[in-house]
Prior knowledge:
- This protein is mainly alpha-helical.
- The protein has one domain.
- 84% of the residues lie in helices and 0% in strands.
- It is built from 4 helices and no strands.
- The N and C termini lie far apart (56 Å).
- The relative contact order is 0.15.
Amino acid sequence: MLATVILPYKLLVLAAGAVGAVVPAALQKSMSRRERLIMVFVGCAAATFIAPAINAHWLPDADVRLGAGVSFCVGLFGMTLVEMALRLVRRRGQWFLDRAVDRVIGRSD
């Protein structure tokens, strides 16, 4: 309740995701400043777009604080999640694309 008074929900999601994204960037000693900024940006973007979807789908009646916690975790693991998704698309992208096309326009068999 207090969080909604201080920050609007969208800004709260962004702030929690940003804090979560800063943690791994601060812990990585071998990264350049540019790499750290990219990591924080990707974590913030992931938290901004993915955390509300997670909250809406799996936690629709959850408190705002739980939503901020989800946003923090998505920001924390945002870069890793993006890397995993890219790896999956590279390995199985054609298969996913074929299935999506088959669902939209039907099978060509």
